[in-house]
């Protein structure tokens, strides 16, 4: 089996995923196509040599339907010979795409591409009418509450308080604001241009530097009413030990909806001969996992345990962690359950501040991880994402010495 190397990771800034957001005028395929084009410019990639490109996208409806990854590759002028698949692993979609691309390289492809795209302003979440969200009969059969209710259930089950969550959310904002101002994201960011050539967005848009614990504590819990009406009953049917659910998640301690695209170039050692860039890191292990679909947002935990075991590593062997902030409480539970030093965890903020462009988040995190490991001169990192219905994915990378 070939060693799998990470040659490059690029991403767009994340725009606010709502009408009027900075990227709301840009179709999803164009967002992704811009990053694919920049990948060629930076690496000298001959796209005809790419064995497979695998793209994550959650809401495959409207302009994101019909294999948006292939459409983006054609828009970017990539060779017709590149096979492209668009996959849905919920919020872990592009990280799972990276798993598949890594497997292709391990099995003999010289080069493979993984990435993702999501325009939540143009293709709103659940536009594809997923029955576990929009069909009451399916919701009841599965016993699957909305994910925000699941997040409140995790908080209740594990004793995570609202002040804990608000403090974590503010920390995410502060770290992201500092990282943006200090230029920590600049290496891998690809500014998005409009049709007239002007820059639409060069920095992540959703950061709120003025957030405070006091302001967040004043916000009304978003999921309390639906919980009281019907959703808490679904939680207690699976977890009768819960008792009354402590609802406190709201827009300020939840992942911000975003527009964005990201991409990772993987290859074998021999691929370096045809590229302008050296490898940045090696993929030590990947893992996916399916957990309790009712609590829903713990899949990254199981995936991380598997990935560390496959890599032969323990938590203390990992220098930095990038874990998608799927609401504050599940993120805190992940960190506490593994006993991770908070100073190594989401050190430049996470999705609460930076935004969650669902299909693009996984490879975005891998790029952020590689950049920060390089900036700090550190060695190993883990990126992990939890998705809907208990799905999760993780990857362990190790930087390549210069």
Summarize the structure.
By secondary structure, the chain is of the alpha+beta class. The protein has helices spanning 28-43, 68-75, 93-106, 131-134, 136-142, 147-158, 162-182, 213-217, 224-238, 299-311, 328-338, 351-354, 361-376; strands at residues 5-11, 15-16, 50-56, 84-87, 111-119, 192-193, 199-201, 258-267, 281-290, 320-323, 380-386, 391-399.
Instruction: Enumerate the spans where pLDDT stays under 50 for 5 or more consecutive residues.
Output: none
Percent of residues in helices = 25-40%
Largest sheet: 10 strands, mixed
Q: What distance lies between the first and last C-alpha atoms, to the nearest angstrom?
A: 24 Å
Please write the string of helix (H) and strand (E) elements: EEHEHEHEHHHHEEHHEEHEHHHEE
Our estimate of the beta-strand percent is 15-25%
Spatial extent as radius of gyration? 20 Å
User: Helix/strand-derived class?
Assistant: alpha+beta
Number of helices: 13
Shape: globular
Can you give a write-up of this model?
The chain is of the alpha+beta class and 402 residues long. The strands form two sheets. Strands 1, 2, 3, 4, 5, 8, 9, 10, 11 and 12 form a ten-stranded mixed sheet that branches. It has helices at residues 28-43, 68-75, 93-106, 131-134, 136-142, 147-158, 162-182, 213-217, 224-238, 299-311, 328-338, 351-354, 361-376; strands at 5-11, 15-16, 50-56, 84-87, 111-119, 192-193, 199-201, 258-267, 281-290, 320-323, 380-386, 391-399. It has 13 helices and twelve strands. The radius of gyration is 20 Å and the shape is globular. Helix 3 crosses helix 13 (361-376).
């Amino acid at each position: 089996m070939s060693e799998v190397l990470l040659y490059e990771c690029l991403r767009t800034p994340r725009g606010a995923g709502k009408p009027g957001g900075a990227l709301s005028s840009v179709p999803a395929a164009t967002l992704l196509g811009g990053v694919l084009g920049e990948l060629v410019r930076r690496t000298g990639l001959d796209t005809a040599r790419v064995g497979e490109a695998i793209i994550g996208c959650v809401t495959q409806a409207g302009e994101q339907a019909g294999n948006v990854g292939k459409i983006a590759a054609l828009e970017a002028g990539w060779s017709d010979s590149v096979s492209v698949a668009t996959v849905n692993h919920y919020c872990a979609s592009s990280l799972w795409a990276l798993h598949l691309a890594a497997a292709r390289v391990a099995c003999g492809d010289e080069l493979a591409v993984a990435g993702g795209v999501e325009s939540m302003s143009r293709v709103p979440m659940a536009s594809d009418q997923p029955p576990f969200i929009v069909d009451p009969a399916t919701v009841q059969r599965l016993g699957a509450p909305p994910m925000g209710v699941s997040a409140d259930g995790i908080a209740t089950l594990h004793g995570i308080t609202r002040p804990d969550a608000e403090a974590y959310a503010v920390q995410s904002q502060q770290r992201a604001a500092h990282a943006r101002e200090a230029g920590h994201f600049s290496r891998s960011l690809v500014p998005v241009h409009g049709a007239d050539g002007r820059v639409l967005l060069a920095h992540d848009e959703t950061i709120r530097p003025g957030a405070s614990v006091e302001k967040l504590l004043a916000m009304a819990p978003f999921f309390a009413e639906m919980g009281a009406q019907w959703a808490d009953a679904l939680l207690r049917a699976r977890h009768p030990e819960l008792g009354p659910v402590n609802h406190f998640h709201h827009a300020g301690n939840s992942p911000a909806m975003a527009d964005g695209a990201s991409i990772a170039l993987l290859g074998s050692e021999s691929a370096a001969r045809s590229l302008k860039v050296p490898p940045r890191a090696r993929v030590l292990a990947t893992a996916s996992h399916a957990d309790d679909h009712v609590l829903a947002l713990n899949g990254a935990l199981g995936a991380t345990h598997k990935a560390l075991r496959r890599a032969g590593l323990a938590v203390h062997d990992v220098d930095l962690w990038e874990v998608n902030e799927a609401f504050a409480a599940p993120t805190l539970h992940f960190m506490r359950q593994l006993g991770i030093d908070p100073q190594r965890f989401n050190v430049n903020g996470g999705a609460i501040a930076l935004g969650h462009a669902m299909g693009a988040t996984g490879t975005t995190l891998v790029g952020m991880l590689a950049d920060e490991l390089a900036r700090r001169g550190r060695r190993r990192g883990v990126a992990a994402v939890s998705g809907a219905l208990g799905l999760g994915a993780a990857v362990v990378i190790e930087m390549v010495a210069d």
